[in-house]
Structure formats: structure tokens, C-alpha cells
Amino acid sequence: MSLRMSIGMTLVAMALPLTAQQTDCGLKVSGFGTLGLALNSSDRAEYVREPTQPRGVLHSLNPSLDSRLGLQVNLNLGGDLSFVGQTISKYRFDHTFKPDISWAFLSYKPTSSIQARAGRLGFDVFQIADTRNVGYSYLWVRPPVDFFGPLMLSSLDGGDLTWTTALNEGLSLRLKVAAGQTAAIDKVPFDDKGNYVPLGGSKLFGAVAELDWRSLNLRLSYAQAQPSEKFPAPITDLQDGLNAYALLLSDPRLAQQAKGLDFKENCFRYLSAGLNWQQGPLRVEAVGAQVRTGEGPIPDLKSGYLSVGYREGAFVPYFLASRIVSDPHPLYLGALPSLGPQAAAMAAGVSAFIRHQRANQTTLALGLRWDFLPKAALKVQVDRIEGRPDDVMLWINVRPGWEGKATVASVTLDFVF
Amino acid sequence: MRALSLMRCAPLFLATLLGFSPARAGEPVVIVHPDSKVQSLTRDEVINLFMGRQKRLPSGLVAAPVEQADPPALRARFYQRLVGKDLPDIHAYWARLLYSGQAQPPRQAASTEEVLEFVAANKGAIGVVDGARVDRRVRVVLDLGK
To answer: How confident is the model at residue A25 (pLDDT cuts 50, 70, 90)?
Structure first.
């Protein structure tokens, strides 16, 4: 028996069906990628796909936003045991495309209903969260930024356990728990000097309940992340300053604010509900999520999206609406703003930091996916974003004159091989 | 009705019968190894096996799904009949499962003969072929052309 072998990332390979490279020893090498270009109508704020990107898109065509390449090996170790390793190269916190190890886990699946995995896993508590880099697997040029922007946790060092059961004909239930710590690969830059917030090492727990009924999928998920590290220096400086003024002014509430600014003092709790329905040519996806933070001034978030697409042969025109809202926690600065220039600068620094934790915006997008080859799709999308200009969590290098409005045009070529 | 029960207890007879091609040419049928101890499968069972949700045949054997990659017409018809999806949707579905490390897509064979050979050689194999090409090396467990 000779199975088809396909090698390389050429158009020829892309024209082959979804075979990848399969050999009889159980080793399979495959990959995915996106070549993208994006353009922003505004030159006042840089548009990013995820906050791990150090620079975003302005007036000139930008290939870094969406372009990425992934390679995966699936190794069948015989019986019920297998290994999956995956590496992804994409634009990351240090302005490079250095590849990171996204998955490296052992999977044990003794029956159809139970699967246990251990190692570095995709944290798939949120809908499509573990395939957000596989553009070919979804409709849009990129997962909705309003929704996935704040959900940066992608890889988990730990384990998960999945139990699937058929309840009735066409009706099945899947329950999953995952625990471990966030992988060290996710880092969020917050200035141009190479400073970043490491997201690795946070204790992570997640649970998902998923119901599949014919073409309908319903999903309820919960996750919590407890950071183990402090924020880096410029932010701890703000905390030290607040603590000093708390002593000086005998104002314990300022010390409380300083504590609340600590990354470690914020246990992030995520709750999300989603629906995915695909019936004939119609596909609908709707997801809502809530993120709760600690007692301090770092705001809570609510976000969601609705996507509707309709397949007409090789073409799927689609509509996508997404929204994110911040619920501000009260920020107490006491007498600081009126206490002289140094104290006022401190207060301004704290306010600016909080503004960077807030997002209030709505995005409406229209797009078209064209499956022009069996393993490649071309997509075009136009996003109109309108939001509060002061709340800049999802924007980078905001310049004076930013009004919170932008139109972003994108084109991507997504492929698997 | 009697003919049907006869078919169930006499797989050889069924294969002979299919040799006369009751299934129309170009219509997908699901086949297994004659010794797989599987006489027939429901549509749901085939969906679970070909969409990566189930990894064992009802008889307990580890399933090895296989399908013919090219030409895509038969595959397209198979998935349209099975789950009402076009091939690009099936490919996107598998990209999601494969690259999240959850499951692997069915083996892709280069020809109908290769599917037949693979199924004839592996007790756990389950394949899709053109109904007109079925021979006595394999057993039909679901005819989607009906």
C-alpha cells in the first residue's frame, strides 16, 4: 500500500488534497500558514491582531499582522498513545519571527470517549482559541480582535482530560478539564524599549462543557488564571511611588490601589458561552465572554462576536460584528493630582496604565473567502472600528489626534500542507 | 424484506450481488474488511468514524478510515450525502481538528484500487468507494447512494 506523499509548501503541494506527508511508521508532518497584507486608514494609532505584537498597522501595507507559518508532527506511538509537536513562527514581542514551540504533548486515548493529554497543550477552553493561528480553519482573515485581543493565553504546560459521550442519536456531550500553568511563550510588549509583561507561569485552570446536536454546537467554558509574577519595572515603580505617598499622606487607600495594580493580586476569571451552527450553506457563530479581574483598579471586560456566512460554491461572503466593553473599577488617587508636579505625574502615570487596560469599541466587518484550491483560500476583509479614543488596550503607539475610528482593509492567503 | 435478511447472513452473496452493481456508478458506498465483524453501520456511526469523533468500529477494532483523494467528485458527494457539507468545509474542519492536535483526517489513497487494497488488507479499515467498483474482497456496510 503506497500512500501519497506530498512535500513542501509549494502551490503544487497546495493543490493536493489534505494528505500532508504520511508514512507507514506513523509519523506525519504537516503544516499551515498565512500570507497577509493589511492597511489602516488612520495614522494616529497602530492596529494589532493581538497585544503580543510590538508594532501594528498604519498607512502602509503591513505583512506582519497576519502572516504566520506553522509546522506539526504527529507521531503514532502505537496503540492508544501518540505525540503531537507544533512550532509557529509569527511576529512576536521582540520584533522577530522566531518560532516558538506551541504544542508538545503526549495523548492517550484508550477509548473513543476518553482522552488524556500531558505536556504543552493548546488551551482550547475558548472557541477556536487553539487554532487561532490556522487561518485556513476559519472564515475570517483573523479571529475578531475585540474578542481574542484580551484572551492571549494560547499554550498551557500541564494536562487535560476529555470525556465524550453520545446521549442520543446525533446528540453528544463533551466535558473537559485542563490544569497547569501558562507557557512562557506569550509575552506582551508595553513599550519600545523591549520591556514586556510575561504571561508565562500563571496558574491556569479551565473547564468546558460542549453539546453537539447535528449541525449545532453549544459551548460553555470557564477559566481562571492566577499570575505568579509581578508586572515589570515601570509599573512596579508606579506601585512603589503610590506606596510612598500612602505613607507620606497617611492614606491607606493609596496603598490599596498600589496593591491592586500588582499583576499577582489579580486572579483573572473568564466565563464564555458560544454557539456554532452550520446548516447547508449557512454558518453562524456567536460567542460572548466576560473577564473578571481582582479588587484593584484593573477593569473587568465583556466581549462578544457574531459571524454569519453563506457558502455559494467556492465563495463564502460573510459578515462579522464584534464588541468589547470595559467595566471600570474605581481608581482612587487621593490628593495626588493636586500635590505638585511630581505627584501629579505619578497620578497621570497610573491613569495612563489603567487606560491601557481598557477597551470600548465595536467592529463591523464584511469579507469574502474564496476556496480557490483544495488546500488554500484567499480572503479579503474590511473592518470598520469605532470606539472610545481614551481606551487603548487594543491599540499601539497612540498619537495625538486619535479619535478611536479606523478602517482596516486586509487580504490573506491561507493554506495547509 | 427476505432478500435483505438473506444479505445480512450471507456476506458473500451480498458481495456477489454487488458485483452485479445494484449501487449506481458514481455513488459512494462505505466498505469494511469481510472479517471485521461489522455487518452494517448507521449513518451516525459513519459520521463519527469519518469526522474523527470515534476511533473504533462497533466490533472494537481500531478503525482506519481511508478515502480516495482524487478525483474529488466521489469524496464531495460522500460528504454532501453524509453531513451536507462541501469539501472546502470538510478541509477547514480537519484543519481545526488536526492543528489543535485532536484527531487526524482519514488516510488519502491515490486510486479506488488503493482504497480496495487497503480495506482488503486491514481488518480495522473502513473506506469509501464508488459503488460500481465494489468486489468480493470487501463488504458494503452503508450505501449512501440509496
So the answer is: low
Find, in chain B, the residue whose alpha carbon is nearest to that of A281: B85
CB contact under 8 A, B69 and A30: no
Radius of gyration of chain B (CA): 15
Q: Is the pLDDT of residue B104 over 50?
A: yes
pLDDT above 50 for A161: yes
Which stretches of A249-402 are DSSP H helices?
Answer: 252-260, 341-355
Count of all residues that appear for chain A in the document: 417
Rounded CA-CA distance A41/A74 in Å is 42
Chain A residues whose beta carbon lies within 8 Å of the beta carbon of residue B113: none
Which chain A residue lies closest to B87 (C-alpha atoms)? A374
Please give the residue of chain B at the shortest CA–CA distance from A372: B88
Which of A1, A30, A375 minimises the CB distance to B98?
Answer: A30
- Is A74 an interface residue toward B (CB < 8 Å)? yes
| Helix or strand (DSSP H, E) at B108 | strand B107-109
Q: How far is B83 from chain A (nearest CA, A)?
A: 8
Sorted by where each starts, the structural domains of chain B and their CATH numbers stand as: 2-143 (3.40.190.10)
Average pLDDT of the residues in B14-24: 50
The DSSP symbol for B24 reads P
Q: Which of A40-54, A110-124, A192-206, A258-272 has the highest mean pLDDT?
A: A40-54
- For residue A313, the distance in angstroms to the closest alpha carbon of chain B comes to 8
- Please state the three-class secondary structure of A75-104 as a single string: EECCCCEEEEEEEEEECCCCCCCCCEEEEE
The C-alpha of A392 sits at a distance from chain B's nearest C-alpha, in angstroms, of 31
C-alpha cell read off for A107? 495523548
Percent of chain A's residues with pLDDT above 90:
58
Q: What average pLDDT does the structure give for chain A?
A: 88
Q: Rounded to 5 degrees, what are φ and ψ at B90? A: -65, -45
Q: Tell me which amino acid residue A148 is.
A: F
Question: CA dist A306 to A196, A271, B46, B129, Å?
Answer: 32, 17, 31, 39
pLDDT mean over B103-131: 93
Assess A103–B contact: CB distance below 8 Å, yes or no: yes
**SS3 state at A117:** strand
Query: Which chain B residue has the Cα nearest residue A109?
Result: B55
Indicate the range of A91-95, A103-107, A406-410, B101-105 predicted with least confidence: B101-105
CB–CB contact B109 A17 (8 Å): no
Distance, in Å, from the CA atom of A406 to the CA atom of A383, rounded to the nearest integer, reads 8
Domains in chain A with CATH codes: 11-416 (2.40.160.10)
Q: Which residue has the higher pLDDT, A284 or A11?
A: A284
Q: From A183, A196, A266, select the one nearest A235 (Cα to Cα).
A: A196
Cell numbers at A155, concatenated: 499554550
Chosen from A131, A133, A282 to mutate, greatest number of chain B CBs within 10 A? A131
CB environment A360-392: b (16+ within 10 A), e (fewer): bbebebebebbbebbbbbbbebbbebebebebb
